[in-house]
């Protein structure tokens, strides 16, 4: 455990801010004071956590001057909270939505402390730094997942965490295997699907897992054929790249409009549950704005 490298956010009206978010500020302040009270940013009285290694804390944060300055700042905020008498009824949902809007404006890269989500073997998500993103292997069955992936016709590079599937007619068994592996720690960073075919329902299931419950950062699809329930070709995705960066969904169709662009975008948006920001390129829809 260590401090994530992230800058500050400015507060223009501190009195109003404290009134609105007092219920969040108090527990956060107590946690900060506990962290600072121990000599090496130890975390006391928390289950399963003893202390943070000094090597994980920036050197400037372990100086007496820094600690004294931080203690004074925390006391100042503590005093402000006590002095401000909040007569207003708290509207937690509306207040949190206002914070989200503010962060979208001042932190439009959605950096979130430079952390990225990784699926664990128990189906949960852990947010980790770039240094540990590629190193963590939560599951002893990783080799088994890779072998199953190879059996279906895919290749996987353990070093780059990039997966490639070429010329495969994807079956329901393939989809179940991939989704199960992705939600239990199979850490794929970038899957490339080329000259493959899916029943549309199978792709929907796969996209739901990739977008909402996996460690995947980028999906690349080239000449991927979508079939309807009787096996007839419904449409073909010629080229699409989707990037998932924290809360942002970035979709590109290679600067050219094809008939599959709108249905593929629809498919992505219908499956997406966790990315509130959509990033698309105007050049992908030139001359087809009404379709969009």
Structure explained in plain terms:
- The protein is of the alpha/beta class.
- It folds into two domains: 14-106, no CATH class; 116-285, no CATH class.
- It has eight helices and ten strands.
- The strands form two sheets. Strands 3, 4, 5, 6, 7, 8, 9 and 10 form an eight-stranded mixed sheet that branches. The protein has a two-stranded antiparallel ribbon with strand order 1-2.
- Strand 7 (218-227) and strand 8 (233-245) form a beta hairpin.
- The longest helix is centred in the first third of the chain and has 24 residues, at 14-37.
- The two termini are 45 Å apart.
Give the topology, please:
Elements: H1 14-37, H2 64-83, H3 92-106, E1 116-119, E2 125-128, H4 130-133, H5 142-151, E3 154-157, E4 162-166, H6 172-182, E5 190-194, E6 197-199, H7 200-212, E7 218-227, E8 233-245, E9 248-252, H8 261-271, E10 277-280
Parallel strand pairs: 4-5, 5-7, 6-7, 9-10
Antiparallel strand pairs: 1-2, 3-4, 7-8, 8-9
Helix pairs in contact: 1-2, 5-6, 6-7
């Amino acid at each position: 455990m260590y401090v994530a490298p992230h800058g500050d956010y400015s507060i223009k009206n501190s009195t109003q801010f404290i009134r609105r978010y007092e219920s969040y500020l108090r527990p956060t302040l107590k946690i900060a004071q506990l962290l600072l009270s121990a000599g090496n940013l130890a975390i006391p009285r928390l289950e399963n956590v003893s202390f943070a290694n000094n090597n994980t804390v920036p050197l400037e944060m372990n100086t007496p001057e820094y600690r004294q300055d931080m203690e004074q700042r925390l006391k100042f905020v503590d005093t402000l909270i006590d002095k401000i008498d909040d007569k207003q009824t708290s509207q937690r949902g509306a207040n949190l939505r206002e914070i989200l809007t503010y962060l979208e404006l001042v932190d439009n890269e959605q950096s979130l402390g430079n952390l990225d989500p990784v699926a664990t073997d128990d189906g949960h998500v852990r947010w980790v730094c770039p240094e540990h993103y590629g190193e963590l292997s939560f599951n002893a069955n990783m080799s088994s997942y890779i072998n199953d992936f190879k059996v279906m016709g895919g290749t996987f590079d353990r070093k780059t965490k990039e997966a490639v599937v070429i010329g495969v007619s994807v079956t329901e068994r393939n989809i179940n295997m991939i989704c199960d592996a992705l939600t239990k720690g199979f850490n794929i960073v970038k899957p490339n699907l080329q000259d493959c075919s899916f029943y549309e329902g199978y792709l929907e299931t796969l996209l739901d897992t990739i977008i909402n419950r996996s460690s995947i950062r980028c999906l690349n699809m080239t000449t991927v054929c979508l079939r309807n329930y009787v096996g007839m070709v419904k449409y073909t995705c010629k080229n699409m790249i989707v990037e998932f960066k924290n809360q942002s969904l970035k979709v590109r169709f290679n600067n050219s409009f094809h008939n599959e662009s709108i249905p593929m975008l629809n498919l992505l948006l219908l499956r997406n549950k966790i990315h509130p920001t959509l990033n698309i390129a105007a050049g992908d829809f030139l001359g087809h704005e009404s379709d969009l």
